[in-house]
Protein 1
Amino acid sequence: MKVKLFIMVIASISLLSGQTPTAEQIVDRVTTIMSPESSYSKGSQTIITSSGKERVFQFESWAAEKGKSSLTRYSKPAAIRGQAFLMLNNADDIWSYFPRTKRVRKLASHAKKQKMQGSDFTYEDMGGGDVFQKKFVSSILLEETRNEELVWKIEMIGIPDQEPPYPKIIMWVRQSDYYPLALDYYNDKDFNTKSLVMSDIQIIEDYPTAMTMVMTDNKERSSTTMRTLEITYAWQPPKGFFSERNLKK
Amino acid sequence: MKYWGLFILLPCLLLAQPEFFGYFESEASTMQIGTSNYNYGFNKFRLDVEARPNDHILIGANITAQQYWGQTTWNMLDFIPEEIWTPFFPPDPLSSQAYSPAFPITIPDTLFLDNVYMKISLSSLDVTVGRQQISKGVGYAWNPTDIFNSKSLLDPSYEQTGVEGLRFDYTLAYTASVSVFIQPEQEWEQSAKQGWLKVNLGSFDIELTKASHNWGYPTFLTGPYLQNRSLLGASVVGEVLGFGTWFEGSSFQTDSPLATGGDEEWKEFIVGVDYTFENSLYILGEYLHNDLGVADKSELTLWDYLGALDGASHSLMQDYAFFYAMHPTFDFVTLSAIAFTNFNDNSGAFSPIVDWNILQDANLSVQGSFFWGEDDTEFGLQDWGLTLTATSSF
């Protein structure tokens, strides 16, 4: 409730005062809205390749500490049933579990850039937390209308010392509630490698939530649609939930 | 008595709204050894059942049916250099028939219960009773701390069979746990016992383990020779200079060194490194040193070969390297390659693999294997092989 109140107060003050917030303030509020204290969700992930082939995955996901800790367990397709990933410290530490071999493997940080189950999302993309605040310097490029919504177009330049996941990100943030509608990710040659679009944004337990997210790989012409089938922010992690023990359950 | 757990757990499984899943796998292979060509394969069906009567109990079992075709009776001497086995199979000077000794092993069709277990989870304690998979160690190709399994270098990540026993896992803190596994035999002294302490320190996972077990060392002529072994081991996995790195090693001791050529103590360790490039190319390398292996090819005996084939030693000789590379090259098609070499006899193999996720729940893979080395070496004995595997999961 405190978080909800904080979001509403900040948003209201800003809008009522009529002053344009700074880019840092916008990114702070985006981070707050996008990082609920904890969550539990069920979702599906549909990968469509450039040749139109499709694969559908289903998973359950748990997150806590504003996305700093998360656990994802796949239930479909059958070949990967029970495969699970534990991510701690904003995906700096990743463990994977393979039920067929009953083996837990710790992945090194370079694995963060790997595609998660062949999708267009990397492990790093799935990590939450304060990455935008700590690893980027932000500035407002312009205000415009996107899908009939008034938005800020924010440019975020990665701070090299902080090892940002991407050298540059452009983010469109809805002015009405500070919810991001789209992100473009750039590589070090300033090529827009991937684009993420949020849609079907619903208010779930006072948090705006994109029920559909589509990540498009602009180079490989593939896309991954992540649909939220069920979600609650009221879930509280039991003691020791984000552990290797629970990864294997 | 072997499947005692089945009679206890099966009724519980059926009453607890079980989930059924599994896979069908069909494999066809051809292999060239010298002038002989062998065609063989199998059809395998595995049915898994899992039930959770409540939040604290998990009951699991799987039944595997495996039917073999083609070459099902193998002459083990085809896989051992002639000069190694000749002293044990002298030609009969009175016989007029061609000299063709054989040590045949037939692989029968099987229908078996691979795992059947119940896991009870309390606040900080998990107790697993029954036949269960035990996969120890952080190594990819070899696991010096694993006393229950051995791996195939051409497919190190294939599932392991179950081990009957009782396992306790106690969580000490978020980042530490202690575990004990006991594989009971008729006498306590003969039972395999392994305990391990696992701790996460920063970006490193550290594990210390102690075990004792009896190894049925094959003696070929007089039946297995039980050798009691104790093991003190450790493993570390983490990141150094941006590379994934790991170490796993064990120090073994035995008070009955007859089967190990008089060795009362020996050490075995692996070091490994992996890296994923921005273009998703994944590479892995591992090095094994095993004191129990033989350093010089001229000192190899039939017992060394039988011990390595049986899994009593994790390797035939002392020093090996293993490499693996994998890249998701096309839509749902992964290209990968395995290479391994025996530094002591300069033999090895290269094995390219194409894995195609042809449909949502179906995979097709083709694996070639090309061996190098002299004819009297561990891998040079074989020439080439080709395996086609189709798998469908449900």
Protein 2
Amino acid sequence: MRHLSKLVKLWAFLGIGITLGTVAFIFLFIFYEGASVISPSFILESPSGAILGTEGGIFPAIIGSLFFTGTAVAMSAPAAVAAAAYITFFCKNDRMKVVLHSVINTISGIPSIVLGLFAYSFLVKSLGLGRCILSSGTALAVMILPFIEIRAEKAFGELSEEMIRSSDALGCSRTYMFLKIALPSCKRELISAVILGGCYAMGATPPLIFTGAVAYASVPESIFEPAMALPMHLYLLVAQGATSMDTAYGTAFVMLALILILTIIARALGGFRK
Amino acid sequence: MNNALTIEKLSVSYDNKEALKDISLKIPEHRITAVIGPSGCGKSTFLKCLNGQIMEENARVSGKVTLSGTDISKLKPSDLRRKVGLVFQTPAPFPMSIYKNMTYAPRYYGINDREELKRTVTEKLKLTGLYDEVKDELKKSAVKLSGGQKQRLCIARALTVDPEVLLLDEPCSALDIKSTSVIEELLLRLKETYTIVIVTHNLGQAARISDMTAFINDGRLVEFGETGSIFKAPEMEETKDFITGSFG
């Protein structure tokens, strides 16, 4: 038993070591490879060059990615938080809860390329929205909905049952309790969940390919036009081969830096209450 | 002596398992009625029947509960809960200031006048003996109060909607002896204004503060009467066994 216990401990430490080591290696590798092209002009200029992207910067892709992410979060967060609130505070039917959880888990299992295909055929073609930020944002919104919902439900679920029952015992409605107690109490966790959901959306490429991301566009002015996106730009740069690998690493550097900053903000917010 | 609550042939079952069987008793106004019995005997289920909470659970309920002459099944849940307050075992202050805890329910019921709210807060905190301790820090988070203070705040909060009856489900079981004694003194003061029903595991507490005692065992009301009689000369052998500690 003692040997087994030591083995399990070793396994756990190895697991942590491999996980942290892999993440650290990826970040350091990308930052090392990409650092050489990072400059104010790379951040603030549009891509150029005989083969697009080998020169210039990635400014339209940064702004485009923020547009795609913002649209996805704006569409997904209210729905995800509302679903979590319904399941936690309002749904009294246990069977219904099981069904809703199954639906949410199913959505989280849909491959993102399938969501892209759905958005392309339904939004771009059938509804005639065309390739635009809104079409891609919708596909991304569906993709991150379970991600935010699960975290929101966890935050709501950690509220004390007796506190909720105390509000019920005063005759106050669950809606009042939700607005006055649950939302303010879980504010930080919810913001954290939404930011992390945004990070997830920012890094996703498949939902954008057919629906709104393009190889080149100027900085978008509305969600009804297509735009460049960092992951798509990265994909195209890598696909072009050796001539644009430096700018590809630079683009990956910016993407990871953005995601890292947002994740740190989200974790800091989420961790404060604890 | 008028009765605040009249319970007639009350039975409750969950999944065909009877939790309460044919309970009938009359709870007098402005008295403390203690409900005693071993764990799992149905004491808490009994309280849930008095404020209608039982209707939200998957339970089959039969019988009738009358509050000051009105069948409680005819009242809207929010109206019933305004009239019958409930305080739980573990103090559960809301994660907001003491003042906001106290104005939470009045604001829900449409009271927004600042002076009126302030008056309610002061009056109810004074009633529970908490005012002098917290009057200078009403904006302090209620979760920072001590265990006993939290429970008194929860009692004061329950009183902000001016209930006729106050139900307490083992309100002192999470508290130390000193805080328990403060709560007991508070309940003795409150019975002048409110009818109190307290579920307690603590037989000493029931003997000290209650006027009437109901002994429930296995979902049945075994005996109900004046506390002195129940503790000194119980009519039923089962009650005697419970009080003398033969079981429970």
